[in-house]
Automatic annotation (TrEMBL):
Domain spans labelled Glycosyltransferase 2-like: 4-159
Organism field: Desulfitobacterium hafniense (strain Y51)
Lineage: Bacteria, Bacillati, Bacillota, Clostridia, Eubacteriales
Pfam families found in the cross-reference section: Glycos_transf_2
Protein name: Glycosyltransferase 2-like domain-containing protein
Gene3D superfamilies in the cross-refs: Spore Coat Polysaccharide Biosynthesis Protein SpsA, Chain A
Spans traversing the lipid bilayer: none
Amino acid sequence: MYDVVIPAQNEEKSILAVLATVLKLPIKRVILVLNGCTDRTLDLTRTILDQRIHTIYFAEPLGIDVPRAIGALYARSLHTQGVLFVDGDTSGDIYDGLAKLLAALADGTDIALTNCYPYITHRAKLANLVLRFRGSLNKELGYFQLLGNATPTHGPHALSAKALEVLMPEAIAIPPLTLVLAKRFDLKVKVATSIRHQDLKSPRKHRRHARLIAETIIGDCVMGLTLARNEEVTRSLGKHKMLGYHPERRFDILQLWTESLITTHSYCENHLIIPRDTPWLGGYS
């Protein structure tokens, strides 16, 4: 069966709704990756007495996308058949879309994506710029006719056990690199569902956040383009380095987590809150 990974930082307003949706799916585990929470997110999740919920808790923020990789590695250590990623702030009624992503894994897809822009609508200049870079990477990889502008960066998506085995943790933490490696390892990629961005019900953030997110995604896509072309990997566009939130990604913790899972080191156990009487096996086969 499959697992769901939910990264969350200060999502007390949405986390219960997200859990209510994913717990209806035919899944083995829900892996919460709580990081840098200063609100009631952890307390609220512990009110749900469901044996399938495993919580990975870090007091410090891990940075954007790194919690996904943390959760994916944990699921892999438990020999999951695949992982569905759902952000902790997506409180919309998206059950049908999530079910389609799991169905795609069952049908042999390795990377199942969501099209969050199924209709042509008016978009802000910044959004159009981000989409242009997402499209450029997909065109470089020969995926554009198949995926359009869809990317693991945006919206729920899923990875098969095969994808989890071949993808580097850093590629999951920098989502566009997932597609670059998918091409390299001949993984099966498809858009499995469409969920309009507004239907995710993610809260609107301030302008500075929007700018930094855009810069992060563009920089990630630039990294993907250079990697796909076998060039020196960079985030630079001309004289400007597209950093955004990239410097806040805790690759040091991701590396420590990876090493600890392999050796069943106590570091992992110290960050785990798992259901009582549920043994944690740890380690890769």
